[in-house]
Design brief:
Keywords: Membrane, Transmembrane, Transmembrane helix. By secondary structure, the chain is mostly helical. It contains five helices and no strands. It folds into two domains: 59 residues, no CATH class; 58 residues, no CATH class. The mean pLDDT is 79.
Length: 118
């Protein structure tokens, strides 16, 4: 994807989520910019490596991928529900950080698989 288009999509997503956090948040002024950075960077990484995302999280995973998905989904669900009880903006930031970690892993995998000689 064109770099300018990718960054445009990332900025739109980041600003949208940060705007919702600022609008419905608890008044913490540092949370909205943090959420913007998390979601903009995550969106940019996901869009840049969307082919690898489709491979990892496709419709035909093997057993290890299903187990990993179940464990990570359970941890994410439990942590997100705990954060929602504290604060919805904090839960939004926590979810964004979880997806950001996934995006970094996919980007690293793509980089390593492209630089590894066959």
């Amino acid at each position: 994807m064109n770099r300018a288009l990718r960054y445009g999509v990332a900025l739109t997503v980041g600003l949208s989520v940060a705007g919702l956090v600022a609008r419905f948040g608890n008044g913490d002024h540092l949370l909205a910019p943090s959420v913007f950075l998390i979601y903009a960077a995550t969106t940019s990484l996901v869009v840049a490596h969307r082919g690898t995302w489709r491979t990892f999280f496709g419709t035909d995973p093997d057993r290890k991928q299903r187990v990993l998905g179940a464990v990570s989904g359970g941890v994410a669900g439990g942590a997100t529900s705990a954060f929602v009880q504290i604060s919805v903006p904090a839960a939004t930031a926590a979810f964004g950080l979880m997806v950001f970690g996934m995006a970094i892993t996919v980007a690293d995998f793509t980089h390593r698989s492209e630089s590894t000689p066959d």
